[in-house]
Amino acid sequence: MSTAGPRAGSAPGRVPTGGAALREALVALQRDLAIDEATVRRIVEGAVVDTYRRLVADDPEVQARVDLGAGSVGLFRDDGRGGSAPVEAPVADFARQAAQAAKAAVAGWAREAERERVIREGMAQKGELIDVLVERLDGALWWVRAGNLAALLPPEEQTPGEQLQRQQHLKVVVIDVRRRQRDAVVVVSRTHPSLLRRLLEQEVPELADGRVLVKAVAREAGRRSKVAVHAPEAGIDAQGACIGPRGVRIRAVVSELGEEQVQVVEWSADPAEYVASALAPAQVSAVELDNETRTAHAVVPDDQLSLAIGRSGENARLAARLTGWRIDISGESGHPRRETATSPAPEGEDAG
């Protein structure tokens, strides 16, 4: 389609761009992406001018005017008398290239707008619990959706052994928004400590209103977790509130986590008491602290030693992560110590 000269019945300078088709495309973009008319006009006009300067002449005074009703664009420049003079584009195939550039510009704007929307909505929900629908598996990656927000559940954030199914509903916590060159993706987790924290807040009114606080969470997702809780005001049983009458509240949380064992312990400002509490269900006879190395030596009855350590060191390891202390455990009769190293608490876990 050439614009080497004015077409019969057309105004000089008019760039034909497929009329009805362009008009329908622009209307659809405005509807689906909520692009206002002024923005569409600005994007299309800029793309047409850029095409003219690239193919015809680098004239800084050339401007474009889009007619959304007709689905066409006109080129003009200031005539110096307060009016405008039409500008021809005497290049074969200019109209097609201008139309392609306009559509590409709108698509690029829409892509960037979508990227910013994902970033904005994802950041607003970071750390929050959301309900999602499992949509599809892409290799080891699960894609899930919450309303109009698609999210990624990568392998490292999937609970070991948990088998997901398409169209399955589940709860996840938003942990990140990854900015990529052309888009952005929200990352969610089933293993992050914040998931357990948010699930408890959902089930325990005393947590939701601040009468009970979650001070720390340590998880080995799919297997076992420990949660340290505290009630700032006297007279409130923080541990009992989280467990609920006959364990109904904690069972609701466990059922969402695929039968992961969740143990609620009392937090204490006294590190020795806190370490003893964190080693439950084992009974602890005494705890000695080395503040310089931040090491706690716990002494337990001989028949409690295996329980304090746990299978493959699991109980002691979680207690160390929960408290932020390195914990050595020995029996009362002087059994060799079990050393349990601890590293800084992962994101979302507070040593309290």
N-to-C span: 72 Å
Radius of gyration: 32 Å
The averaged pLDDT comes out at 85
- Which fold name fills CATH's third level, the topology of the largest domain? N Utilization Substance Protein A, Chain:P, domain 4
User: Order of helices and strands, N to C?
Assistant: EHHEEEHEEEEEHHEEHHEHEEHHEE
Report the top-level CATH class of the largest domain: Alpha Beta
What structural class do you assign from the helix and strand content? Answer: alpha+beta
Strand arrangement within the widest β-sheet reads 5-6-7-9-8
**Which outline best applies?**
elongated
Task: Give the tally of β-strands.
Answer: 16
CATH 4th-level superfamily of the largest domain: NusA, N-terminal domain
Any low-confidence stretches, pLDDT <50, length ≥5? 1-12, 343-352
What is the helix fraction of residues, given as a range? Answer: 25-40%
Number of helices: 10
The main β sheet shows up as: 5 strands, mixed, barrel
CATH architecture descriptor text of the largest domain? 2-Layer Sandwich
Question: How many structural domains can be distinguished in the coordinates?
Answer: 4
Measured by DSSP, the beta-strand proportion falls in 25-35%
Give a structural overview.
This protein has 352 residues and is of the alpha+beta class. The protein folds into 4 domains: 14-112, N Utilization Substance Protein A, Chain:P, domain 4 (2-Layer Sandwich), CATH 3.30.1480.10; 125-189, OB fold (Dihydrolipoamide Acetyltransferase, E2P) (Beta Barrel); 192-267, 2-Layer Sandwich (GMP Synthetase, Chain A, domain 3); 271-352, K homology (KH) domain (GMP Synthetase, Chain A, domain 3), CATH 3.30.300.20. It is 34% helix and 27% strand. It has 10 helices and 16 strands. It has helices spanning 19-33, 37-55, 94-124, 193-203, 205-208, 238-243, 248-256, 271-278, 305-309, 314-323, and strands at residues 14-15, 63-67, 72-78, 84-86, 129-138, 141-146, 149-153, 169-179, 184-189, 213-220, 224-230, 261-266, 286-290, 295-300, 326-331, 338-340. A 5-stranded mixed beta barrel has the order 5-6-7-9-8. Strands 1, 2, 3 and 4 form a 4-stranded antiparallel sheet that branches. A hairpin with a 4-residue loop joins strand 2 (63-67) and strand 3 (72-78). Helix 2 (37-55) packs across helix 3 and helix 8 (271-278) runs antiparallel to helix 10. The longest helix is centred in the N-terminal third of the chain and has 31 residues, at 94-124. The chain is elongated. Mean pLDDT is 85; it is low at 1-12 and 343-352.
